[in-house]
Amino acid sequence: MSPSSSFASRVLDRSVGPCQLLTLPTPVERFVSFKASFITNPNFAAGDDIRQDLAVALLDKGTQSRDRFEIARVLEDRGAKLSISSDGLYIDISGKALTEDVPVVMDVLSEMVREPLFDPGEFEKARASTIADLQRQLEQTGSQASGALSRRLFSENHPNYTPPTETLIEQAQAVSLDDVTSYYGAHVGANEFRMAVVGDLEHDAVEEAVQAAFGDWQPHASEAVHDRDADPQSPGRSLVPMADRSNVDVRIGHALDLYRDASDYEALYVANYILGGNFSARLMNEVRDEQGLTYHISSSLSGVSTTHQGSWRTVVTLSSETFEAGVEATIDVIRDFVEEGPTQDELETVKTTITGSFIVGLATTGSLAQTLLTNAERDFEVAYIDRFPEIIEGLSLEEIADATQRYLHPDQLHVGAAGTLPEPVEAE
């Protein structure tokens, strides 16, 4: 029996006020890890991603009742960790605390999220830091290549669209504290609020702490306005010339007509793993090992959600001299894989790798909490975590080949690349 085989029977999943709370006792001593999220429904086309990023950057900088130093002191005195981050449609929360300190940490978390200070001085610091980070992205070939590909596949109001970095810098320079405060008031509330807590715990004690901290938290009224489906251009290239770079970062891919709850998602996941999931994959063996055109290449299903479509993409690092040959070789391997499908030996090897990695990935309280939360965000039953290895093991070669040919289309591939490119180039 695998370590994951009894999760459904050990997890308590219930509503506590506005929160879907999942708790899982594990054999660790005196501490718990927790992960949480709530949905904000930003309008990406209107620049809400910058407003949300700046708002989240201010949440640990003081509340209406405590300044940043007192908040830090309360957490540090207890050895607790608490972080809040912006993640597209969501605001994510991550933390760790001693079991007896959970009520105090939940109280601090509630205060940070529900009663932020939004100090003008801290806002200016956060905005300057955000602009500096974006300016650094202008020098990062990987970031520029990924953004270029995303703009070929998605509309401006899709969660997987990345605006040009210059646009983000302009938005950050123009945004005001009032803009951020107004956005936060309109988009932050207990909407789809979920929390997973794992470790040395009593179900009732955690429930009481969450109820006390968040029981009366109200939802916001902002509705989802993001695009669900991809909106790709005709297949082509977006190239971003960057002088004096030793490598060219390349992204090759296309949008996927697929959601995470599709019945054949796991078959496509396995197919991609065989093609480009690790160092034993087809792309690595043929483009790197046999042809020597790169030292790194991989492929993945990117940004596929139950609420919006994502993409399939290959990431490859090439030199200016090998750019054209490397792109051509990569597409040739993809085309052959789609036409021929995987072998039985490849399938059996990858089944073992995926199920083994999944079980190992559940070895810590933090990873367990994240898995429970992600599963809940997808509106999957807890039992899916138990079933996932069984689903993978049960896939046939025919199912993998069918999913490959249904979803991967070599004639629809787009290319985004950034670096010192061979002449002539067509800039984005």
Features:
single chain; 428 residues; alpha+beta; Cytochrome Bc1 Complex, Chain A, domain 1; 5-stranded mixed β-sheet; globular
> What's the main sheet like?
6 strands, mixed
> What do we call the CATH topology of the largest domain?
Cytochrome Bc1 Complex, Chain A, domain 1
Order of helices and strands: HEEEHHEEHHHHHEHEEHHEEHHHHHE
- CATH architecture annotation name of the largest domain: 2-Layer Sandwich
State the strand order across the main sheet: 1-2-6-3-5-4
Bin the strand percentage. 15-25%
C-alpha-based Rg, rounded:
23 Å
The helix tally amounts to 16
Global outline: globular
* N- and C-termini, Cα separation: 53 Å
Q: Write down how many β-strands occur, each being a DSSP E stretch of 2 or more residues.
A: 11
Can you offer a commentary on this structure?
It is a single chain. With 428 residues, this protein is an alpha+beta fold. It folds into 2 domains: 208 residues, Cytochrome Bc1 Complex, Chain A, domain 1 (2-Layer Sandwich), CATH 3.30.830.10; 183 residues, Cytochrome Bc1 Complex, Chain A, domain 1. It is 45% helix and 18% strand. It contains 16 helices and 11 strands. The chain has a 6-stranded mixed β-sheet with strand order 1-2-6-3-5-4. Helix 5 runs antiparallel to helix 7. The mean pLDDT is 96.
